[in-house]
Amino acid sequence: MKFTGSVLLLFIAGITASPLATRGGKCPKNEVWSDCGSACPEYCGQPPDTMCIAMCQSGCFCKSGYIRSKANGGTCIRPSQCPK
C-alpha cells in the first residue's frame, strides 16, 4: 500500500511541476507559452463543431496560424501541411 501511495504522489508531483519547468524554459518550434490556453486546441482532421469545455490550461500552445498535427499532441504545423 505504501508503494502505491508513493507512486501516486510522485505522479501528481510530476504533473504539477511539469508546467513550471516548461514555463521557465522554451516552448518547441511554432509554439508559445500561455497561462490560459484552450483545453481543446485545433488539430489536423478535427471534426467540425467539436464541443470543448470552457476551461483554460497553462502550457505551450501553437502560434497563431498553426494547429496540432495530431489530436493527442504532435507538432504545430500550418493547416495546409495536414495529411490529406
TrEMBL record:
GO terms for molecular function: peptidase inhibitor activity. It comes from the Eukaryota. The keyword Disulfide bond applies. Gene3D superfamilies: Laminin. Residues 1-17 form the signal peptide. Residues 27-82 form the TIL domain. CDD domains: TIL. The keyword Disulfide bond applies. Keywords: Disulfide bond, Protease inhibitor, Signal. This is TIL domain-containing protein. It comes from Dactylonectria macrodidyma.
